[in-house]
Amino acid sequence: MKKKTSLFKRIVSVFDKYIVIPITRIVLRITRLFDSSSHWFETFLSKQTTLLFLSLFLALGLYIFVDSKLLAYNNRSAEVFRDQKVEVLYDDERFALEGVPETADITLMGNKADLYIARQQQANHSVTIDLNNITEPGTYEVELKYNSGDLKSIETSVNPSKTTVVVHAKQTENRNLTYSVINTNHLDSTISVEKVTLNIDQVFISGAGYKVDQVAIVEALIDVDKLKSKKSGKQTFEDITLRAYDADGNVVDVEISYKVKPVAEVTLSSSSRTVPLNFVIDKALPFGKAIESYTFSRDTVTVYGSKEALDTLATEGIDIKFDASNLTKDYSGTVEIPMPNGITKMDTNRVDIDIKVTSSVSSSDYNLTIKVDKLNEPDGYHVGPNSDADVEVLIRPTCAEKVCKALSSADLEVYIDLSSLAGKKEGVYELPVQVRPRTANARLTTFVISPEKVKVKLMRD
């Protein structure tokens, strides 16, 4: 109790010392200015009650004054608008720019009410770089300016406040437009893109000269995720992204424009085909061994994909390559079916196989003499054998005796590929002879070709 009383006395003492006594002194000084006729006023002011109320009113007034100043101070605030788009004012028909930031951060400082209004009107504000006074290419350091509209009382700062802009003379060229279909793996595995047709085949690219020179290809990207329908059928696709790439496949930053907006007609299909499976020896068997026969658990597989791929596989089938380098005895197991190009789904991706191994034979009784075919003859040229010796070759097979006895020239395609002669001068050229098996028997056989090369005469039509 004594402690509480003592604390109270201390508070009264402080109040008396720093408020009552100073105010009393002020009052006394004022009263001395009056004559004796103002004795009643002095008596009034000297009353303890009057002094207490007067002190209270002065203290309250001082509190309100200070608090109002603090309120005004606390009412100021700051707001940061991040990633504001930068608009550049320049002659875009003559110049191409580098070094312009796409966005800038804006800091606004001012009254909270003004900042609230600024936040609501943010879409009407802008960050600009004014290059309208630039008439020649070059490098310029320019300021970024922020227009806060009618809110002139707000202080603003832009980050970055300045930037270095390189101004190039604009160069424009027209380029062929190709297309690329992306995200095809997002389609159902039974659906494939059968055909894409663009309504235009050329666009214009514009930019700094060195960048225009870098462009190797311009592509229209057909994103299957943006298709209206992912079911079989034909549809029009307009949401096309145009990209320019250099020779290494990197995107080149140039403007791409066109006279007619590119539109694609996209055809999706759900084509399928049952195709044969081919057994192909990938690596030769150990010396003296050969495969007499093999049996798949199934001879065909149903595949889904593009029409072109299905048409090719319908005649050629799918090759299943088997490493036979360690095959010395009969074998039973499972092999993987490779997914061919253009195929999106197969009804199975593996098949069981039984292989019967026997001894190999190589006898002149089974040798075959086959005429050499020509493939890929160059346009505008005629290719013929240089001599009668170059018309046909001798094929010496090594295989299981049962296979060799059944082997005939119809099982093999013997040919030379003339595509390497495109652009060559007229004359005589030597080309390697190649053998392609057409049947299961031929795929179980290894061959020695004699001669390995033939000479041909290249002549203009």
Number of strands: 31
Under CATH at level 1, the class of the largest domain stands as Mainly Beta
Helix content: 10-25%
CATH architecture of the largest domain: Beta Complex
Overall pLDDT level: 86
Instruction: Give the termini distance in whole angstroms.
Output: 129 Å
Find the CATH topology of the largest domain.
Answer: RNA Polymerase Alpha Subunit, Chain A, domain 2
* Biggest sheet features: 7 strands, mixed
Beta fraction = over 45%
Give the class from helix and strand content and strand pairing. Answer: alpha+beta
Rg of Cα set: 46 Å
Tally of contiguous helical segments:
8
Q: What count of domains describes the coordinates?
A: 5
Q: How would the global form be characterised?
A: elongated
The low-pLDDT segments are 66-74
Quick overview of this protein structure:
With 461 residues, the protein is α+β, with helices and mostly antiparallel strands. It has helices at residues 2-32, 39-46, 48-74, 112-120, 209-214, 307-316, 401-406, 440-443, and strands at 76-89, 95-98, 103-111, 126-130, 138-143, 145-147, 155-159, 162-182, 192-198, 202-208, 217-223, 233-237, 241-245, 255-257, 264-269, 272-283, 289-296, 300-305, 318-323, 331-336, 343-346, 350-361, 368-371, 373-375, 381-385, 392-400, 412-417, 427-432, 434-437, 446-450, 453-460.
